[in-house]
Write a structure and sequence with these properties.
This protein is α+β, with helices and mostly antiparallel strands and 346 residues long. It has helices at residues 8-34, 47-79, 83-88, 91-121, 233-244, 253-264, 304-317, 332-343; strands at residues 129-136, 139-144, 153-156, 158-162, 167-173, 178-181, 188-191, 197-201, 207-213, 225-231, 294-295, 300-301.
Length: 346
């Protein structure tokens, strides 16, 4: 016996149901993927982020439970003839569930979150490691004022910290308003020209997490990212020792050609490289650029190919930034040599 055609309402109802299930599946997959990202609020790497994560879990789980209970009550009232329908529709039930329960729940959440806010504000250490982060269009300057030999240790677009030690991040802006957000370690802190803001955080396990500017700062706001690398203490000491050293001398003729082409093209007017004659302060310090994870404030992964591409077409990759494209200034061989030399600066 053949099955007759389904009524249109049934067919459409099934389509809507399957579509809803598909949407829920996609949403679940996206939420699951958030925990695997280096920039995730669902994967805390420190005690401060863990406190914020606890608030998130309570609000999501509590909100879901309350929503399901509310929908169950609505379904009972609409689709049943039980005595429960009369109970749920009574004035007392409305008073309890509509006024008393929300007031008690919100008051309890307020007291609990105020206690967490207090824990976030109180310092964990009397002597945190101080790091200055300076926002520029369109990159981040990172300074370690207490760790350099004979002056501040200067890097760019990347923060290195030891696991288990509290860090005080001093946030400064040199041009427009920025906002530093490292969701795996702490909440946001604004960078406002003429004002110095501070925020403290600590990593409790090694790893690499991503930060992002969370305040519109210009045409390339989306490409204003950075990385935070948390090292075990002994590994951080080794990184610090290496970072204090000047740039190594070219070890081959090809690298020497890259160094000469770098100077001839005028790159030293904007960039500083310790151990050389170049002391420019208009762009990122390139003393150990070859060891960084990214280029152009997280716009590109860092390797020889992307170094060459950035030098040749900086305005194509990140239009409007302050570095000109050098594709018409350097020959192909010089471009490859400069990229190779910069890659060797580790």
């Amino acid at each position: 016996m053949k099955e007759g055609p389904h009524p249109a309402g049934v067919r459409h109802g099934r389509c809507r149901a399957s579509g809803t299930i598909a949407n829920l599946a996609v949403a679940a997959a996206l939420l699951a993927g958030c925990g695997e990202s280096p920039q995730s609020v669902l994967d805390p790497h420190g005690p401060d982020a863990e406190l914020v994560h606890n608030i998130t879990r309570v609000l999501f789980i509590g909100g879901t439970v309350i929503f399901l209970l509310t929908m169950a009550c609505v379904g009972t009232v609409v689709f049943t003839r039980w005595k429960l329908r009369e109970v749920l529709g009574s004035r007392r039930s409305i008073l309890v569930m509509g006024i008393v329960f929300p007031a008690l729940a919100l008051a309890a959440l307020l007291v609990w979150t105020l206690d967490i806010a207090r824990a976030l504000v109180l310092p964990r250490s009397a002597e945190p490691m101080r790091i200055e982060m300076i926002g520029w269009q369109f990159w981040w300057e990172v300074r370690y004022p207490d760790l350099g030999s004979g002056g501040a240790l200067v890097a760019a677009n990347e923060i290195h910290i030891p696991v288990g030690r509290e860090v005080e991040l001093v946030a400064i802006s040199k041009d427009v308003i920025h906002s530093v957000w490292i969701p795996a370690l702490r909440g946001k802190i604004d960078m406002i020209p003429g004002r110095t803001n501070r925020i403290r955080f600590m990593a409790n396990r090694p790893g690499v997490v991503r930060g992002q500017c969370a305040e519109y700062c210009g045409a390339q706001h989306a490409l204003m990212a950075f990385y935070v690398v948390a090292h075990p203490p002994e590994e951080f000491d080794r990184w610090l020792e290496q970072e204090r050293r000047p740039a190594p001398a070219p070890s081959t003729d090809f690298l020497a050609l890259g160094q000469r082409a770098f100077g001839t093209a005028g790159c030293g007017a904007c960039h500083a490289i310790r151990g050389t004659e170049w002391t420019g302060g208009y762009g990122p310090d390139l003393t150990h650029v070859g060891s960084r994870l990214s280029l152009a404030a997280g716009a590109l992964d860092n390797h020889r190919g992307t170094l060459g591409g950035w030098i040749a077409g900086a305005q194509d990759i990140k239009p409007g930034n302050r570095m000109p494209s050098f594709n018409s200034v350097l020959t192909g061989e010089e471009l490859r040599a400069v990229a190779a030399w910069l890659e060797s600066l580790k």
